[in-house]
Task: inverse folding
């Protein structure tokens, strides 16, 4: 499956973001002077002749790049497969599958975990049943299920919606990972119990959905009348000769000895085999050897044909590979299950995949008969997006490209698009709603030269990319090929559309703005913490200077109430942040056993809300009977404001909601 990353996450940076949920600082905005106008983006650079793509040249090129990547990023091993014109052109393993035993990676006999690339097998199975007339691409999925997907927006969810990531489901992370095989739910139980709420009308907004692929896999199981993993084995793995591939978890005994270890860093200990719910998981539980992936890529590059076998009819495959949904014609869109990732003047479709420690990409250049698969068995340091860098270098070597025309640069006020945007792939109705501004809220700002930048979009050197206006609310990457498109939806909300078609970014309202949350949570934390800290300090100072506090019994009780509520509110925020921080480094925490603890936390928040109302009243009463000096007035006002901000935060974050689907 594709793990949650801002944009695209359970790595150290995300954990730090979560820890900062109740006390993080705002990112400064770049100054916004009036934009300047330039005549063009610059002269076209002549294209150098491309070397012939031979096995020896590809090997020399990759041998000069991949070992350096592994060393620099502290990655244990990788496998790379290149197919061309129906054959394997290049196949090689780099580094180690097991560092302790010094077992090298074998392209034919080492299993990797390709994560969400598994989905393309699920989608292929769906298309097989469609061409057999057993499934209708545009029919209500409820016709194939033994439970009902609500028509929240008055229209049904279809297989086409699932395959283009437009069913409208919000993001859910509960039961994303488990620790033991006996904790794995069945596919049927999982899809019935984990159905997300719909937050968009089907077919309108892309929002990547792991659940959608699991639902499609369950439909394959019900319609075919055989377990999902058996269907894949019989109709895809078997015909393609994929002997080293499996969706089942744990692996069969015959495959366990050749499974690569997963690592966070190569310099650290190996991690256990990752269990991905459900069993099996159509969205991401596959294990596969590199050369077995070659057969699958060749079959799709040849429109379903592999040797004397067909897994899809040509027309079915062509329909699957064709563009089906896009937010704007100028940028990449979705095919059926594959997403467009066109570059260097080539139409390319593909898919990526991430588990906690395995990270993979598959690219298909249909018109060139070219397929490229890469998988790393370690997360690495994260200083470089190694997969993307490798693929772009490969394309630039064998398909060098430069724009044939200079695009005019137009004067356009960057203020019209500046602001904070939230990913469409997010939770909107769950108790984790306010987590997403931390994880997936990029900021668009203007540079001094009139270009814009998006703080989350960085080049390979780690610097924010710059984007220059080319008119029509479109911005071209300076020195690059990518495009940003800004357009308003039917309700007038501005959207940022990127070259990644599985999500868009929507300009946020005040309650979803990370800066607003930053101020609110920082202010709450500061005021409540100072109140508790100064309580014993004040007592020590009064004792030292022999200046006792003269309060009547009611005032003493009100004063104690203020301190207790501050402690309760702070404990609730710290506990919530702690659960999130630990959970995003140990995803198996987010499961049913956590629910009782969440209920206790909700009770603490509820007590905190009631206490905050009482605290605001008590503070006012104490202020009325005090000397009403300047500092007393400022402190009292700050305490009342912090109380109401705490209540506001709990309300907008939906922490107290009854349902625990998240």
Result:
């Amino acid at each position: 499956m594709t793990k949650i990353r801002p944009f695209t996450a359970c790595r150290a940076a995300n954990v730090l973001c979560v820890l900062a949920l109740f006390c993080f600082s705002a990112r400064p905005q770049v100054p916004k002077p009036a934009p300047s106008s330039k005549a063009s983006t610059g002269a076209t650079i002549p294209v150098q002749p491309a070397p012939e793509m031979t096995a020896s040249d590809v090997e020399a090129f990759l041998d000069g790049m991949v070992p350096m990547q592994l060393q620099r990023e502290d990655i244990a091993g990788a496998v790379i497969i290149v197919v061309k014109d129906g054959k394997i052109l290049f196949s090689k393993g780099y580094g180690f599958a097991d560092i302790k035993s010094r077992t090298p990676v074998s392209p034919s006999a080492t299993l990797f975990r390709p994560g969400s690339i598994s989905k393309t097998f699920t989608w292929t199975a769906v298309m097989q049943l469609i061409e057999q007339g057993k499934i209708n691409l545009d029919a209500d999925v409820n016709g194939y299920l033994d439970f009902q997907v609500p028509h929240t927006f008055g229209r049904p969810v279809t297989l086409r919606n699932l395959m283009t990531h437009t069913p409208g489901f919000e993001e859910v992370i509960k039961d994303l990972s488990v620790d033991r095989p006996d904790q794995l739910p069945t596919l049927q139980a999982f899809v019935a119990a984990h159905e997300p709420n719909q937050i968009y009308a089907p077919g309108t907004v892309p929002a990547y959905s792991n659940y959608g692929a699991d639902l499609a896999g369950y439909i394959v199981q019900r319609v075919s009348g055989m377990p999902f993993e058996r269907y894949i084995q019989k109709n895809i793995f078997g015909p393609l000769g994929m002997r080293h591939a499996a969706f089942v978890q744990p692996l069969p005994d015959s495959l366990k000895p050749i499974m690569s270890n997963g690592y966070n860093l190569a310099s650290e200990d190996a991690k256990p085999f990752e269990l991905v719910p459900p069993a099996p998981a159509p969205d991401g539980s596959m294990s596969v050897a590199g050369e077995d992936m070659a057969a699958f890529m060749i079959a799709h590059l040849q429109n379903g044909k592999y040797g004397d076998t067909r897994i899809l009819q040509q027309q079915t495959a062509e329909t699957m590979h064709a563009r089906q949904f896009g937010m704007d014609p100028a940028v990449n869109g979705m095919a059926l299950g594959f997403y467009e990732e066109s570059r260097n003047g080539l139409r390319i479709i593909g898919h990526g995949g991430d588990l906690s420690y395995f990270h993979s990409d598959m690219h298909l250049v249909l018109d060139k008969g070219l397929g490229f698969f890469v998988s790393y068995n370690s997360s690495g340091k994260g200083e470089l997006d190694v997969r993307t860098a490798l693929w772009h270098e490969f394309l630039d070597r064998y398909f060098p490209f430069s724009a044939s025309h200079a695009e005019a640069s137009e004067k356009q006020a960057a203020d019209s698009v500046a602001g904070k945007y939230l990913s469409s792939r997010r939770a909107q109705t769950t108790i984790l709603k306010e987590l997403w501004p931390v994880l997936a809220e990029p900021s668009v700002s203007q540079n001094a030269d009139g270009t814009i930048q998006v703080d989350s979009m960085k080049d390979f050197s780690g610097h924010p990319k710059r984007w220059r206006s080319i008119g029509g609310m479109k911005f071209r990457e300076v020195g690059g090929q990518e495009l940003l498109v800004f357009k308003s939806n039917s309700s007038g909300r501005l959207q940022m559309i990127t070259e990644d078609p599985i999500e868009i970014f929507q300009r946020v309202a005040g309650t979803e703005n990370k800066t607003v949350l930053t101020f609110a949570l920082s202010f709450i934390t500061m005021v409540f913490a100072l109140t508790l800290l100064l309580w014993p300090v004040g007592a020590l100072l009064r004792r030292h200077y022999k200046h006792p506090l003269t309060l009547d019994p009611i005032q003493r009780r009100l004063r104690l109430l203020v301190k207790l509520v501050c402690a309760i509110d702070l404990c609730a925020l710290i506990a919530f942040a702690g659960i999130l921080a630990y959970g995003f480094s140990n995803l198996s925490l987010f499961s049913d056993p956590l629910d009782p603890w969440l209920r206790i936390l909700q009770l603490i928040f509820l007590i905190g809300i009631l206490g905050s109302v009482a605290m605001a009243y008590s503070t006012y009463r104490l202020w009325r009977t005090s000397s009403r000096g300047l500092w007393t007035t400022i402190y009292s006002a700050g305490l009342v404001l912090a109380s109401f901000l705490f209540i506001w935060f709990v309300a907008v974050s939906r922490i107290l909601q009854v349902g625990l689907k998240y």
